[in-house]
Amino acid sequence: MLKEINYDRKKALEYAKKWAFKRNSKYLNFEKIGGDCTSYVSQCIYAGCGVMNYTPIYGWYYKSSYDRSPSWSGVEFLYNFLIDNKTTGPFGIESSIKDVEPADIIQLGNSDGQFYHNVIINKIEKNKIFVSAHSEDSYMRLLSSYDFDKLRFVHIVAARKYF
User: Fold this and answer.
1) Using CA atoms, how far apart are residues 80 and 35, in angstroms rounded to an integer?
2) Which residues are 115's β-sheet partners?
3) Which residues are 142's β-sheet partners?
4) Which residue in 65, 60, 94 sits closest to 77, CA to CA?
5) CA distance 29 to 16
6) How many CA atoms lie within 13 A of 69 on its CB side?
7) pLDDT digits (tens, 9 = 90+) for 107-149
8) Which pLDDT band, with edges at 50, 70 and 90, does 34 fall under?
């Protein structure tokens, strides 16, 4: 039976902190093949939910460098998975800046509407958002220090797994 489970934001944030400036050897470093930002964010989300979705092509999983879903390491693919997922694994909703919280995701985009970078929210303080990311490794970096034209916010609601 498919049931919702909590997204453990604390675990996701602990993972984000631990691996912000280094790489977990369980996962391929995508730095030289397009960037590691989405894989890092996926790892953080996985730390917070512990459930992957092994559906070929459209799921969200990582078994090895050559056996993984596009959503594990692709910005748009991750967004589509999180927003559209109705089965196992994490799911979320696109939200506004006022509705996000630590361990949620922000995607940076250009003026053409293409989103190219993922960051995870570490802390929100007054009108400041602090994030972590790979590709330009950072921890507690001000979101406002990035160069972007558009932002897209994804609030992770929960995850689902079979019991």
Assistant:
1) 19
2) 109
3) 130
4) 60
5) 15
6) 22
7) 999 999 999 999 999 999 998 999 999 999 999 999 999 999 9
8) confident
Strand, coil or helix: 146 = coil
- Side chain identity, residue 126: K
Determine the Cα–Cα distance for residues 53 and 31; give it in Å rounded to an integer: 24
Please state at what angle helix 75-84 crosses helix 37-49, rounded to 10 degrees: 30
Q: What is the pLDDT of residues 43-75, one digit of tens each?
A: 999 999 999 999 999 999 999 999 999 999 999
Beta carbons of 139 and 20 less than 8 angstroms apart:
yes
CB 4 within 8 A of CB 159: yes
Query: How far, in Å, CA of 140 to CA of 124, rounded?
Result: 10
> CA dist 23 to 17, 18, 20, 122, Å?
12, 9, 8, 18
Lookup: tokens for 89: 């694994």
pTM over 0.85? The answer is yes
